[in-house]
Structure prediction request, 500 residues.
Amino acid sequence: MTTPAKPKDAASVVLLRSSKDPNIYWVKRADSLVFMPGVNAFPGGQRDTSDGEIPVLNAESPEAAQMVVCAVRELFEETGVLIAKAVEHADREQLANLRQELLKGNRSFKSILMATGLSLDASMFTPAGRWVTPPFAPRRFDTWFFLTWLPENQTAEIIPGELVKGEWIRPEKALEDWENGQVLLAPPTLHIIRTLAEGIDSDITARLMSIPEATGSIVRRIEMHDGMLLFPVLTPTLPPATHTNCYIIGKEEFVIIDPASPYEEEQTQLAKFIDSLIATGQRPREILLTHFHPDHVGGVAALKKHLNIPVRAHPLTQEKVGELFQIDSIIADNEIILLPGKKPWRLRAIYTPGHAQDHICFFEERTGALVSGDLIVGMGTVVIDPPEGNMRNYLDSLSKVGELPLTALFGAHGAPMGGAHFKVQQYISHRLLRETNILKSVEKGFTTIPEIVKAVYTDVPEKMHKLAERSVLAHLEKLTLDGRVSLEQGHYKALSSLIS
Ligand SMILES: [Zn+2]
Prediction:
């Protein structure tokens, strides 16, 4: 079993302005980022080793001092806002120039504080909890959150790059945008916005810390869109992933997609979580499956028994799972599963073979979120292993979902992602580039699969080459169908030339 990534220290700042009608400053992360692409968040980032070298007044511990420095530095880098003692007397133009120098790496944050004579003070920050990224994400952080007020005479401004947008917004409006499915929010961001929307008073810290997740307990309920819950469960899946995402969609009535874990303890946790939803008056309607792979269906039998609800899947799935459990009804391509509510969820089943012949994605039409199964995942790569896997079908399926008005991807592994079209295009280009390189290597005279892998997969560690051979076979099968290569007595030969 692969161990999940170890969390790294990070700090994040909830910047507030105008105490009479408080606004928060949130930023949108670029689609191209590995961690939380296209997600709205608060400014922040990872601790730097040099953060420990800067003195901080009124800090409770050396550890807390470092995290305050990290918070101040990240906020300054990302928004230009500097939280320091007597900062209102600082020269604003000088600060703007120093920010540029810091971003270019020409100056350290310590030297900036020395040059301006400013000192940092922990009492200018209100602690707002400490959250650990769940073990299902490719990158994990142990993030200290802080609240602070925008100093007079300063303005927040992002420099487009890793962040694409920065905006002041009332917490109530931010919550409304999330409820409408216009933004993706990670659990701490959602919790903080909700808490701030209920008012900002002297017991704000206590209210922010009132749930165990805000003091470092593992987050299991992840609701990046309203009514689209993600409950990652431990599964025997392909590294680097350690978990499969089980999705629970809807409120009054909900469906459960891929109750995946074969482990009893995880099945119990999932059942308990669903029971807690039922206790609030919500009703489970059915279990839906994206495809038959064991790391997606390991908990179906147990959950079906626990809830006594039907299991639904593609017509091919029953044959593939055999006696493991009974499929009660078939999901038709383009079928709409309507889940009632103030804002109903309309899940359209999209047949997307390629990774598996029975693969289905579920497209939520109101928000544009795609539950993408193993078609597109948030971490690791998708295996196309013939004869079950078919590269031509896989690329067709990617193009098919690429034509939908997509906003977000809720994959079966890793964290959900915004910037859906960027990701779909990236997936297609990545496969086509491999295909071109495979064809070129055949033209150069590499005629067997192990030879081609050696020539093409130079960016992949050798221990992964056996797996890469399966992908190469899938590409060669597609190239054969496309009339670009032929197989003669165990050797591949190019039929049309890419290189002259
Ligand atoms: Zn799979």
The pocket of zinc ion is lined by residues 291, 293, 355-356, 374 (CB under 6 Å). The chain has three domains: 8-214, 222-418, 433-494. The longest helix spans residues 420-443.
